[in-house]
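Moderator note: this is an archived Q&A kept for reference. The question asked for a predicted structure of one protein chain; the sequence and the answer are reproduced below.
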Amino acid sequence: MEYTTLGRTGLEVSRLCLGCMNFGSGAEWMIGDREHSLEILDRALDLGINFLDTANVYSAGESEEIVGEAIAGRRRDELVIATKVFFEMHDGPNGRGLSRKHVIDQCHASLDRLGIDYIDLYQIHRWDHDTPIEETLSALSHLVDEGLVRYVGASTMVGWKFMKALYTADLEGHERFVCMQPEYNAVDRHEEANLLPVCADQGIGVIPWSPLAGGFLTGKYERGEDPPENLRAGSDDYTRRRFTDKNWAVLDEIRDIAAGKDATPAQVSLAWLLHKDVVTAPVIGPRRMAHLEENVGAIQVDLTADEIDRIEAPKFPQWPQRGKD
């Protein structure tokens, strides 16, 4: 495994971050098997992945509980545990959002489920239009001051709002977001025209989610064929909406490059992200042990400038998105 620092911090993280959304039973495409989830987590840690990303909302806390079980007994000082807050955790008032109350309450709840004394990276899962960013930043700073959180991060928002949050933190002396989680992969490149320039300018670490476009970039789907019901695209639209001519053209190039390197399309797709200077660590979400082993193999895949150009040629990054063209 290779390691790098998260943005301008001194925090060392593995070049791949293990996404833990699949570890639970909240949806039919999740693993739904606690023991198998623990086996994947244990193997990831043994392979040198020290960066684990979950969220309170993943299977209503079940993912955090599984992560907590997996890291029990491991050296805590070697692990970077990240979780998130924003989405609804219970019905009624104050059950969601980024108010001071919800942020602090949910931090304590996440700590309990994870079985740890502090969270390395606490992230706002989305922008809260109903809460002033000053209030959210104040709450996050309080958690850092109390020793419950070490760093704060953000995920998925309009670039100017993220810049506003960074400016507000600087102006008022609050904790500054050190990383951003955008949707980013070889067919979803809209953030190149939105968040990524802000991150590059401000020294923000980037940990892309959906680096394989919901499985599309693994190459397990074929143009013109209905996806099998047992695969994600067979049961929801998140992957299937990428079945467009331009995206198939990207995948054609990735498949051809992979064949010439004795690699898989997934490995080439991850390697494309790892070659981006702005990217710290793609967030991989394996559902099977073989997927994990395959993903880790991407660290060893080298791409030439010409191969990167071939992957990027079919698409032009736009913001706002113009569908998935």
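Archived answer notes: The first strand starts at residue 3 and ends at 5.
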